[in-house]
Amino acid sequence: MFTAYEKAVLTLFRAVPRTGKISAQPDNEKDAAHGIYITDEAMAACPSLQDIDSHKFLWEKFGYDMWAMNQGFYKNFHEVQEASSKQWLIHQILHYMSVYLQNGDMTTAEKVDSNLVFIPQTELNLPDGEPIKLTVIDVIEDKEIKNRVRKAIMSGMALSQETLDCVVVIMRELDMLSLDLATIPNKELRVRLYDQLDQIPAIAQEFLRLLLFKTTGNSLLIKSQSVIRHIRLLREYKKLDWTADLFQQFVNQNGIEPLAAEFLRYKKLWLAFKGDATVSRIINKARKYSERCKYVKNIGLLERITWDDSVKTDEVIAELSKVSFYKKVVLANCLLYRQNNPKSALYLIRNGTAFARELTAPPQFTAKHKEILEAVIANIVEDVKMKVGGKVFYIPDTVEYAMPTSEKHFVGGVPFYSALNLDKDVVIGIHWENLSSERVDLDLHYVSGKYYVGWNTQQNRLEEVIFSGDMTDAPKDKGGATEAFFIREKVQEDWAAVYLNCYTYNHQPVPYKFVVGNVGPEYINHDYLINCHKMVLNINNSIDRGEDFLGFLAADEIGTKTFYFMNASFGDSIVACDDEKGKNAIKAMTTQVTTVLKLRDVLNMAGATVVNELSDAVDVDLSLDKVTKDTFINLL
Q1: Which of 24, 198, 480, 632 has minimal CB crowding within 10 Å?
Q2: Burial of 350 (0-12, 13-18, 19+ CB in 10 A)
Q3: DSSP 160
Q4: Residue among 284, 262, 259 nearest 271 (CA)
Q5: Which of 389, 404, 410, 431 has the alpha carbon at shortest distance from 532?
Q6: Can you tell me the distance from the alpha carbon of 391 to that of 389, in angstroms, rounded to the nearest whole number?
Q7: Exposed/middle/buried for residue 217 (C-beta within 10 Å: 0-12, 13-18, 19+)
Q8: What angle do CA 597, 307, 312 make, to 5 degrees?
Q9: CA nearest 69: which of 431, 400, 366, 550?
C-alpha cells in the first residue's frame, strides 16, 4: 500500500514519487477498466505499485468502478419510467421499512444488516467500449516536488485543509522543515509547522490558531458556537490539560501584552480554554490588561473602495503592490459583479459555508469604480505577462475557467464559477459507501424554479428529470450506493442547484464521488445508470455537514446544458428545501458566473495564445483531466 508520503504526492500532483527501483510491468488492462493508466517509468520507480491496495487507492481517488457506480435503487432509467406509480411506491416503502424496522430511526447512523434491506431486482448490463479518457499516473522527481511545494506555500493563495496536510507530510519527508517560518505567507501552514517543530509563535493570534489546530484539527480562526462548544466539551472531559504548558511557554517567551492585545477581539475563544488554574490565571491577567493593550484594526484602502468616495485610483494602484495576486482577482470580481446591477448577493465564508440574500437596491457603480476596475485588471495582466507572454495554452471549447482566488474555492483542481459546456441530455450522479462502523444515507436533489426532484418528491414522476431512486444504505461489499438524475433535452431555460444532503448523523466526513456525463436521448433505453467511460467530470469529495451545494446546471432555450463549478453549504438541513435561500442563491449565481474574470481573457490580454486544439505547439495543456491542485498556482 502507498505510504502517507506517496499518497500526499499523488493527491497534489497526480504522480508517484521515486521511492525505489523494481523490474515490473504495469497491468494496464485492469487499470484501464477503472480509468487509470500507469506509465512504465512510474511502475519502475514506485515499489508500492506492486500492491493491489495501491491500485485500489488510484481507482478510488482518480478512477472509478463501473459496477459499483451502478448500484442504484433502480439500476437503469427506463425501468424507473416503466414502473407504475403503485409499483414504485411499494418498492420504496419496502426499502424504507426494511431499514426502519432494524434501527427504528432513519436518521441514525447505526449499522443495519444490509442483506435484509430491500432493493428491487432490475436489469443491469454494463456497457462495453473503451474510456474516452484515462488518468495517467507518471513519476515525479524530488526536485520538482520541492519546487512545486515551495511555489504553493509562497504563492499567497489560501490553501485547503487537504492540501495543507499533504504539504506538511511532503516537507517532513524531503527535509524542508528548516524554512524560516516568518517568511511563509500562509498563516494556516505556519501553524502546522509550529506544531511539527514544537515551537511557540510570537504572535498571539497565531498562538490561538495553534491552540485551535491542536484542539479541533482545523487551523481556521473562526468564532463559531460549534467550535466553542467543542473546546468546552474537551475541557470538561479533562482533555485540555496540555494547554497549560503552552500558555505558560507563550507568556515566558513573549510576555502577557500580546495576549492582552488580542483578548477582546477573540474573547469567547480565549475564555473557552479557561479551566486549568494556570490557563485561568493567564487569561484573567490578559483580560485585566486588555483595555490598555488593545489596538484598533484599520480598514485597508482596498476594502473601502466600494463605499468610500475619497479613494483615488492612483492610491489603489500603489496599494496593489502590497497585496497578493489573488486578492487583486477578488477585488476585480467584486467590481465586475457590481457593474452588472445584481439583484442578489452571494457571500462565501472561509469555513466552506455560503449565504445569499436579495438586495433592496442595486449596488453603486460609478465612473470612478470603472476607472479603478480597469486599473486593477491592467495590474493583474501585468503580473502574469512575464509568466505567460508568448506561450501557447490549450483550453478546450467545453471549458471556461474562472480566474482562481483561493484553493479553498476549487472543485477538484477547478476554480469556483468555472463552466463546463455539455450536450442536451446529461447524467449527474453520486456514489458513496457506508463508513466502517456507520450507515450512511446521502441524498441528491435537483432544485430550480421549475423542478424540485429528490427522494421526497419521487411521487411526482417526471419525464424531463428522471431520478434513479432513494438509497438509504451503502454496504461496501455490495458496491456502495448510487443516486443519479437523467436530465433530458426537454429541460430548457432553467437554472438548477444541485444539492447533496446527509440524512444520517455521522460522526466523521463521508467520502463520495460526483460525476457528470454527456449522453444522448437513446440513453433511456440502456440497462445501466452511469457509463463511466463517458463521464466528462469525475470528482472525489467528502461531506461533513447536513448539506453541501455541488454546483449549478443551466439549460438554454434549446436545452443545451452548462455545469458551473462550486462547492459550499447554504445551510445544515438534512433535507434540501425549495425556499427563499435557494432562490436567492440561484439569482446571485446567474450574475456571478457571467461576470467573474475569465482565465482565457487574462491570458489573451497578457500576450499568450489560447487554442482549442492540441498540437506540438502547445506549451501548457489545460484539459480538465490534466489540471491538478497546483496547476493554477504554478501558472499565475
Answers
A1: 198
A2: exposed
A3: -
A4: 284
A5: 431
A6: 6
A7: exposed
A8: 80
A9: 431
Q: How far apart are CA 495 and CA 503, in angstroms?
A: 25
Q: What is the pLDDT of residues 187-240, one digit of tens each?
A: 999 999 999 999 999 999 999 999 999 998 888 888 888 889 989 988 888 788
Element (H, E) at 566: strand 561-568
pLDDT digits (tens, 9 = 90+) for 78-123: 999 998 888 988 999 999 999 989 988 888 888 999 999 999 999 9
Gap between the Cα atoms of 53 and 607, Å rounded: 46
- Pairing verdict, β 419-421 and 414-415: unpaired
Is 0.70 topped by the overall pTM? Answer: yes
Q: Which of 172, 636, 184 is nearest to 406 (CA)?
A: 636
Contact indicator for 62, 161 with CB cutoff of 8 Å: no
Asked whether 504 and 440 are in contact (CB, 8 A), the reply is yes
Can you read off the three cell numbers belonging to residue 54? 495501491
518 close to 536: Cβ distance less than 8 angstroms = yes
584 close to 449: Cβ distance less than 8 angstroms: no
Please report where in the chains the cell 436545452 appears, as a residue. 559
Distance CA 222, CA 234 (A): 18
Contact of 493 with 557, CB cutoff 8 Å: yes
Rounded CA separation 177/144 (Å): 17
Strand extents, DSSP E, 438-579:
442-448, 452-453, 465-467, 481-487, 494-502, 510-519, 535-543, 547-555, 561-568
Instruction: Give Cβ neighbours of residue 616 (< 8 Å, ≥ 6 apart).
Output: none
Using the structure block, give the residue that is written with the C-alpha cell 468546552: 232
Sheet holding 494-502, edge to edge: 399-400, 419-421, 561-568, 547-555, 494-502, 442-448, 452-453
Question: What is d(CA 247, CA 251) in angstroms, rounded to the nearest whole number?
Answer: 6
Instruction: Spell out the alpha helix ranges (H) of 22-125.
Output: 28-32, 40-45, 52-62, 66-69, 77-82, 85-103
Q: How far apart are the first and last CA of the chain?
A: 35
| Cβ atoms within 10 Å, residue 1 | 11
pLDDT tens, position by position, 389-411: 999 999 999 999 999 999 989 99
> In this structure, which amino acid lies at residue 65?
D
Query: In this structure, how many other beta carbons lie within 10 angstroms of the beta carbon of residue 551?
Result: 26
**CA 530/CA 126 separation, integer angstroms:** 9
3-state SS of 262-297?
HHCCCHHHHHHCECEHHHHHHHHHHHHCHHHHCCCC
Query: Would you tell me how many other CB atoms lie within 10 Å of the CB of residue 204?
Result: 23
The residue type of 159 is L
So what's the pLDDT on residue 465?
94
Instruction: Report in angstroms the alpha-carbon separations of 385 from 317, 406, 537, 635, 636.
Output: 17, 20, 31, 11, 9
Q: Provide the 8-state DSSP code for 532.
A: G
Q: Give the closest residue to 135 by CA, choosing from 55, 50, 71.
A: 55
Which amino acid is residue 301, in one-letter code? Answer: L
Pairing of strands 392-394, 414-415: unpaired
Question: What does the alpha-carbon distance between residue 500 and residue 502 come to, in Å, rounded to a whole number?
Answer: 7
Calculate the alpha carbon distances from 246 to 168, 239, 241, 273, 604 in Å.
22, 14, 10, 12, 52
Dig out the grid coordinates for 378 from the structure. Answer: 491592467
Say how far apart CA 451 and CA 467 lie, in whole Å: 12
Give CA–CA dist 17/41, Å, rounded.
11
